[in-house]
Specification:
Length: 289
């Protein structure tokens, strides 16, 4: 592993931890920047295949969706179909007749780059209003040893990110040094050994977190959450690899030294967000006490 890859990875983790701890509008602003840059890369991949999506319009409504999700998760769900309709109307009145591919890739951009990531904003917002001690709805721990007193959104988001990091790092190293069986032709470098260890690492972190947070039936809850995150992050990685293969590029961009583009680093987070959110808000409360 090259030094630029290691250093840029450390910087990314520090920035991620900072935005997670602060929460509120600080988290939303940082996420808007990430989504903006990620969608630019997405539309670059799309245009490489000869498709002409509604890039600027989709960017605008996706950022708007993230902002609305900070105010109300219910309202964000209501805005999604309106945003999709707006994108279709925009393409309808363009001088050049839009194709099915133009419409489809624009709507996918809204879903992939706006709606699904909005669940990270919703997740981090859980319990934030009651604990906010900074301007703009932010929070900073006053007692670093009493993690259980932190907002629920903070602890769950940290746990989810920890599972993803464990899955990515575990899969990378085991796949690189011990992997022999190819996982998929979509991404030839990924191996079954790396994938299995990555998911197992995610489960281990989730079980440890469930135990520390004193969840009911914590072994079962931890295993379930770890499997959801580990598998979803792997599928997110493969989905982005599929897009890159279709566009005929190795990386989605060159923004992050040694890692490629934003999408190359954020692909594992896209599909995990709604799964974690609904696991915590719907399934976890149903566990017998």
């Amino acid at each position: 592993m090259s030094w630029p890859r290691i250093l840029s990875g450390i910087v990314a983790i520090v920035l991620a931890l900072g935005m997670i701890f602060l929460g509120g509008w600080y988290f939303t602003l940082c996420f808007c920047i990430i989504i903006y840059l990620g969608l630019l890369e997405y539309f670059q991949l799309v245009r490489a295949t000869g498709i002409a999506p509604a890039g600027k319009t989709t960017l605008a409504v996706s950022i708007t969706l993230l902002i609305i999700a900070t105010v109300s998760s219910t309202l964000a769900d209501a805005v999604l179909p309106v945003a999709g309709t707006f994108i279709c109307f925009y393409l309808l009145f363009q001088p050049k007749l839009a194709t099915i591919a133009d419409i489809s890739t624009s709507i996918l951009g809204l879903f992939y780059g706006g709606y699904l990531p909005s669940y990270w904003v919703r997740l981090r917002s859980l319990g934030q209003a009651e604990c906010s001690n900074l301007l703009l709805g932010g929070y900073w721990p006053q007692n670093w040893t009493s993690i259980k007193d932190w907002p629920q959104g903070l602890t769950i988001t940290l746990l989810a990110f920890g599972c993803i990091w464990a899955a990515d790092i575990g899969a990378y190293f085991i796949g690189k040094f011990f992997g022999k069986t190819s996982l998929s032709h979509i991404s030839p470098k990924k191996t079954v050994e790396g994938a299995v260890f990555g998911v197992s690492a995610s489960v281990a972190v989730a079980v440890a977190g469930a135990w520390y947070l004193n969840w009911h039936l914590w072994p079962i809850a931890g295993v379930a959450l770890g499997l959801l995150i580990g598998i979803a992050s792997l599928l997110g990685d493969l989905t982005e690899s599929m897009m890159k293969r279709d566009a005929g590029v190795k990386d989605s961009g060159q923004l992050i030294p040694g890692h490629g583009g934003i999408l190359d680093r954020a692909d594992s987070y896209v599909f995990t967000a709604p799964l974690v959110y609904y696991f915590v808000t719907l399934l976890l409360p149903l566990l017998p006490k």
